[in-house]
Give the backbone structure.
Amino acid sequence: MLIVLAFIILFHVASAILLFVATIHNAWWVVSPPGAAVIFSDLWYSCNSTCYPVERSHTADAAYLQVVQATMILATILCCVGFFVFILQLFRLKQGERFVFTAIIQLMSALCVMIAASVYTAEKDTFHVGSIKTGSYGSSYILAWVSFPMTLISGLMYLVLRKRK
C-alpha cells in the first residue's frame, strides 16, 4: 500500500509541476521568421530579445485569451489544493472510505486544463497579431495537453483509492 501511495503522490506532484510550467513558461506559440530572432509567445507576453505584452489582451477581442489565462491558473490552483486536501484526507478519513473530495478537485482541474488548451487551439488566430500568426505550437502548449490526461488519471485514481491501514 505504501508503494501505491508513493506512486499516487509522485503522479500528482508531476502533474502539478507540468501545470506550473505550462502556465508560466513563454512558449505556447513559437514563430521562427527566416533571418530574424525566434519569437516566443505565451498567455501574457511575446518575447524575442525583449518581452512585450500580448497586443489587445485587455480588450473584448481577446476574451478567448482571457479564458485560457483564467482556466490555466484555476487548474494549477485546483491541482495544488487537491494535493493538500489529499494529505488532509489521508490522516482524517476512516478506514475504507474513498478520497472522493480530492478526486472531484482533480477532475475539475483536468476539466480546466482541457478547456484552456481547447480554447487556445480553436481561437489562437483571434488574439495573435498578423506578424506572429504563421508560427507553430510551442512546448508549453504541449505540456498543457500532456497535463490534461495526467490530472484526469490522477482524479480517477483518487476515486478508486480507498484508505487502508
Remarks:
- The beta strands are 29-31, 39-41, 45-47, 51-53, 136-137.
- The chain is about 60% helix and 10% strand.
- The mean pLDDT is 85.
